[in-house]
Write a sequence for this structure.
């Protein structure tokens, strides 16, 4: 299929969404808490089309031809950064990658000045990761284009949550998470992945269990109580526990979270060895889940700590699928944020 036909296929996805009265209207994506369930389903359908593009010999469409995507990462990253850059190039965007280690940030340039400089140099879509929670929100206030949060502090990682959801839907009957038990085990306290997954998975109707040492669950029990009290309309409930066997037993999905040593403060864990013994996902512990359950990890993994090496490469593990799906999900989001679906619908209507 030609690239023109591929672009038309992507456009048809948006046209289908329009007929269902679901139109993407967000200028930025800073977290999934502002995205409605119909909009999440629009992202999932658009990702399906992007997966189709990636399955073809020529993995490229001209949807963002001439648009400039700039990645600005204040933290080290392999999966997220490369995934975003690959996604942008697959959409024919011009990609500029800014490494803060070799930029004027090392000379004391502020975040605000950096963003204004990048916009003056032609940036239209800014993909940003920062160690400070809320930094992408500040960027969105001053940047004239679109901001896509690639992870901020402990706060949010929306694209990871969406690719996790997409991967789960691929492996569950009919792609339906309603009533399905999902256990997330690990460093919940410091995890932006867990926080964004709470929003997306409860919106999907999953029976969500968060598990870890009590020191790494601080505040989550109060959040869960407020959630169950109806503070979050339209979302399912979630549970918080330090009983790993109870969390994993009969689960449809088991996800391990990395122990974030770079964010860890003294006294939260006696030792990594004890954590691995009490909470690490080993074969015996995973056997408590349903026979068809999948094992996930957002990466990077500390093998032998939060997940045993044999579990990470077992037939249950879909960790490499998560990485691959990340490209398609991020293609879908770049496409939607850039407003390419509106252009495609308008073009189809004019024909």
């Amino acid at each position: 299929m030609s690239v023109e036909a591929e672009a038309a296929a992507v456009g048809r996805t948006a046209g289908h969404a329009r007929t269902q009265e679901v139109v993407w209207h967000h200028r930025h994506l800073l977290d999934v808490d502002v995205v409605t369930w119909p909009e999440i389903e629009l992202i999932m359908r658009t990702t399906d089309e992007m997966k189709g593009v990636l399955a073809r010999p020529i993995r490229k469409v001209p949807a963002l031809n001439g648009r400039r995507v700039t990645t600005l990462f204040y933290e080290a990253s392999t999966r997220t950064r490369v995934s975003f850059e690959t996604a942008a190039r697959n959409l024919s965007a011009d990609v500029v990658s800014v490494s803060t280690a070799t930029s004027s940030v090392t000379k004391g340039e502020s975040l605000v000045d950096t963003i204004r400089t990048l916009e003056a140099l032609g940036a239209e879509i800014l993909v940003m990761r920062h160690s400070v929670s809320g930094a992408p929100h500040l960027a969105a206030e001053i940047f004239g284009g679109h901001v896509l949060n690639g992870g901020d502090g402990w706060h949010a990682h929306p694209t990871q949550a969406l690719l996790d959801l997409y991967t789960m839907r691929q492996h569950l009957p009919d792609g339906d998470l309603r009533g399905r038990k999902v256990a997330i085990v690990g460093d919940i306290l410091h995890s932006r992945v867990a926080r964004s997954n709470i929003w997306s998975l409860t919106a999907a109707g999953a029976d969500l269990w968060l598990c870890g040492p009590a020191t790494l669950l601080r505040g989550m029990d109060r959040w869960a109580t407020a959630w169950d009290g109806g503070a979050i309309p339209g979302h399912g409930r979630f549970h918080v526990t330090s009983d790993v066997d109870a969390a994993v037993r009969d689960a449809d999905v088991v996800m391990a979270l990395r122990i974030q040593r770079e964010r860890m403060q003294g006294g939260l864990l006696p030792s990594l060895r004890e954590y691995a013994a009490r909470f690490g996902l080993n074969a015996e512990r995973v056997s408590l889940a349903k026979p068809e359950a999948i094992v996930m990890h957002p990466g990077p993994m500390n093998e032998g700590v939060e997940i045993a090496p044999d579990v990470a490469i077992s037939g249950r593990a879909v960790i490499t699928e998560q990485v691959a799906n990340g490209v398609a999900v991020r293609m879908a989001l770049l496409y939607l944020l850039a407003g390419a679906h509106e252009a495609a619908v308008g073009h189809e209507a004019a024909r």
Notes: The radius of gyration is 20 Å. The longest helix spans residues 319-337. Residues 1-19, 343-351 have pLDDT under 50 and may be disordered.
